[in-house]
Amino acid sequence: MPGIELFRLDGRVALITGGSKGLGYNMASGLLSAGADVAICSRHGEEADQAASQLSNECGRPVRAYECDVSNEAEVENLVSQTIGDLGKIDILIANAGINIRGEIDKLTPGEFQEVMNVNVTGVWLCCRAVVPHMKKAKYGRIIALGSVLSAVGVAYRTPYASSKGAVAMMAKTLALECAGDGITVNALCPGPFLTPMNIPIADKEETKKFIVGAVPLARWAELHEIEGAAIFLASDASSYVTGTTLFVDGGWTAH
What we know:
Strands 3-2-1-4-5-6-7 form a 7-stranded parallel beta sheet, sandwiched between helices. It contains 8 helices and 7 strands. The chain has a single domain (9-196, 224-249), classed as Rossmann fold (3-Layer(aba) Sandwich). The chain is α/β, with parallel strands linked by helices.
């Protein structure tokens, strides 16, 4: 298969959690542009429906939408069953759904810490657990778990989020070893400072602007579309010999 064709996703089916906005939405758009059939989910069914409609209008292709709380085992199992029932299979999982609760450790509650872990860690684990048997049967799969630059470096007042994203990176490494004999690759995609809905509330603060310029060699926030190339790469046959790694899209942050 020649060069650029390795990045094509025609005939592949992708499930993207947290696909109704932010990076999930843009990764869905990217995979659609490469030829994949795409299903997205959100905890909020109406948001998923609206996003799927918008993606379909933009890309000229149908997009499935589901409601799912990824921290709920029964809902995840149902999501995977529905997707396979509607689209026939799942070749690609992008476990993207995540939340962030910021604050000083002595001001945060154990409940807030657990809430982040439930979505960001347990949710990824449950989604992987649900799709792996189907991928093993097909002897093919691409699993992309969304880590973060905070999978590798620390930032003050982010103990729940950084802990969760560190766990996701190690989960991807471990699952990659477990699935290597079944034609399934597993990698962590680790974004840096993207202007997602999660980050917009802090983007205009002076201390944040100074931090971005100091921490990121490219000295700017990433635009949402800049995640698409990495997602297409990890989802495609172009990455057939890439597994158990963490791919940082961080403007050079982790090069320090």
